[in-house]
């Protein structure tokens, strides 16, 4: 990219980023909304035996959801904190095999699949090792911590032919599937801008997770947790709040941007942006973390055969004194689609063919004779249909009460194991979502615009 084009792109950021402050479309369409119905699937009775690797918040959540799928049985769990292993036995039964060493799980012949929900810096190592041992893998997002690791995961999956699915469940949501349908049907016209935000104002929302009173070098395998990062004395804050540190996590982009990118790529069939710029600050949570709590990123998507060129603006603010809110909007020439988690709304407002006249217009500065001449010419040029004002159309869609997209995501995963059905989020899709998020971190810490190669999934 030339120096001039870089300057032009960065100069535009001041005006475009400001759009992220716009209000939501709440109240866009009144109930009743169109209720979407999930596909009714009955899984076979043959058992699939799973193990959980990493039994923190996501680990327990994923395992609990996986066990709702008929024919799935939990055999073992691994975690570096003894308390999590004890908790697992109390929840799932004393028969459960527990270990600090995930490699013991991979050696077991009675385990078909593993659910990996460990800190980000362990994802690639454990995913690759599991596939090498013939296990199917469900790996939490982001798929990897470093872009180069993603290519290694892809290569391993392609070589071993193992079932591998990334755990960003939105791609299995019936609401997102319907939103994709509506987008492809042209309901919002030509896409030109995507804006999304996830703002929070709570300690837990800012990853200030509770730390057990018995955390110590005796109850935690600290050295294994550190892996290949800098060696240091035991620190329970780093262990239980690992998302706050570059060494173990991926910050705002890896935890939250990746959800938004994943959903967008699924909807429009995109391979990713070509330029990325992010900025931010550490505003409120000065707790020793070395990642920002406020970040805004601009992603420039080039025109492809799948979609037109457009810009995406993402924001996360953990210091939102308004209490926090979130939305994802796809803005087109004929309408706007606002996504919730398992619901969405569409507002359509097509421009009439005739531009109109009067109001804030030079027409009012014409002489009377010129106004009459202009109206005569205007009426001859545009038909009555061309001059008709287009009525705004509003619609809303939502999933039924109690719907769980993560359950559908696990159902898809286990169907791939049983029937050879393609997974909905394979390793390549996973890196196409994680890569731009990780590149946003590169932009923030290096204070520069990042050129991204969406086809080959690497920084240029």
UniProtKB/TrEMBL annotation:
NCBIfam families recorded: TAT_signal_seq
Pfam families, per database record: GFO_IDH_MocA
Signal peptide: 1-29
Domain Gfo/Idh/MocA-like oxidoreductase N-terminal positions: 48-167
Keyword Signal: yes
Keywords: Signal
Annotated SUPFAM superfamilies: Glyceraldehyde-3-phosphate dehydrogenase-like, C-terminal domain, NAD(P)-binding Rossmann-fold domains
Official protein name in the record: Gfo/Idh/MocA family oxidoreductase
Upper lineage: Bacteria, Pseudomonadati, Bacteroidota, Chitinophagia, Chitinophagales
InterPro entries associated with the record: Gfo/Idh/MocA-like_OxRdtase_N, Gfo/Idh/MocA_oxidrdct_glycsds, NAD(P)-bd_dom_sf, TAT_signal, TAT_signal_bac_arc
UniProt-recorded Gene Ontology molecular function terms: nucleotide binding
